Amino acid sequence: MKLIDLNSTAWSVRKMSAAIADQKISPVDLIDICLDRISRQNGELHAFTEVYENDARLAAEAAHKAIKSGHRVGPLHGIPIAIKDMIDINGKNMTDGSVIWRNRISTCTGTVARRLIEQGLIIIGKTHLTEFAASGWGLNSTMGTPRNPRDMAVVRAPGGSSSGSAVAVAAGMVPWAIGTDTGGSVRIPSSWCGLTGLKTTIGRVSTHGVSPLSRTLDTVGPMANSAEDAALLYSAIQGPDLHDVRTQRTPPQDNFEQLNRGVKGLRFARINDNDRAAFSPDVLKAYDASLAGLSKIGAEIVDISLPYTFSDIVELSSIILFAEGYAVRHKEVDDISLEMNADIRSRLTEGRNISSQEYLSVLMKRRHYMSILDATMADIDAILTPTTVSTAPAIDEIDLLVNPSVYTRFANFFNLCSLAIPNGIDTQGLPTSLQIIGKRYQESTVLRIGHCYQTQIQNLYHQAEQ
């Protein structure tokens, strides 16, 4: 049996790591495959802003020699990765998805990028995003919109703001990537591109060297082909950082200790009947099948009553996001001589009219709502929802006044962790997605649930089909 299928677009990093350890494949081989796929596909899919071909080849050769000589620095040594183009790498371009910053050169290396490099991962390039990471659709009229590779007959939205990272992984150009999530920016593109994406709790992963949108809501997280790989990448980037005081409050966790424990005895809350009306029939069908599958293998599915709707939370989180987004981008937004996406300028301009009283009132209300939610979730392990209300829409059918992040912003507002995993295919052949919203700092639990779903329930489906 092959340890790794080189023709697959859904590589397993765990298997890839084992193959490198056994010297059945080298980092040079992996970089060659990735660069070849990028060369053939990026012109059409537009995932990468920049590809570090020469640097990646040099790093791969060095990794190969080190591993061959017994100097492997860890299980991820020699593995290729892409990172979102809002993370600094000293001496490299960092655009934050804006033509305004197309010539900006970083003068430091962000903690996430530094940790990847220290563990021997090879950053092969940077990926496109929506301008200043300020939209969930994944559209960017000035820098270009990545194309969702799940449908090459219809041009569909990739999801945002981590659009290029999702497209690069979904197309098999890289085995995984780093994204950021302020209101759903890891989970929405993971949903529409058929990936597993983890929104982390603030303080788990340093945001030093990551261009800010909302300091209150910004997080960094992995995008991969499985919960197991997401756990590997999350483990690589988590932990205390002197440059980010919030990371010093919570020690890193072992994400593999309970990964294979299954879901027997866990209690999951489902959405209520009013929320069901928002979702497309195919998304609901996949969601109900997921609940049934989890119940069949030992989970308890329960109803809970939340004191506020998901839409209520979108409205409140928008005040935080727009106020803080305008505060950090007001110079670009207010200078109309600078070229910006019209929808992004319009969204961030809303922050100009938010008073300090309104902003601080929402922050106080957020703390109060958190205490209520914590009590409500005391005896449940996760809230399960569909990640998005529909599968990936055609770009020419998008209404920019509609918010695609209605069910993802909940986790950002309450600083919860959340995992998006593929859970089916709709009638058009597009992926549907299940969102697993966990408690604060319980990433190991949502990864455990996701891994169980992907290893046990999907196997049940395959057996039923046979």
Word description of this protein:
This protein is of the alpha/beta class and 466 residues long. The chain has one domain: Amidase signature (AS) domain (Amidase signature (AS) enzymes, Alpha-Beta Complex), CATH 3.90.1300.10. It has an eleven-stranded mixed beta sheet with strand order 1-3-2-4-6-5-10-11-9-7-8, sandwiched between helices.
Task: Sum this structure up briefly.
Helices cover 39% and strands 13% of the residues. It is α/β, with parallel strands linked by helices and 466 residues long.
CATH topology: Amidase signature (AS) enzymes
Bulk shape: globular
Q: Looking across the biggest beta sheet, what order are the strands in?
A: 1-3-2-4-6-5-10-11-9-7-8
User: What low-confidence regions span 5 or more consecutive residues with pLDDT below 50?
Assistant: 461-466
- Counting DSSP E segments of at least 2 residues, the number of strands comes to 11
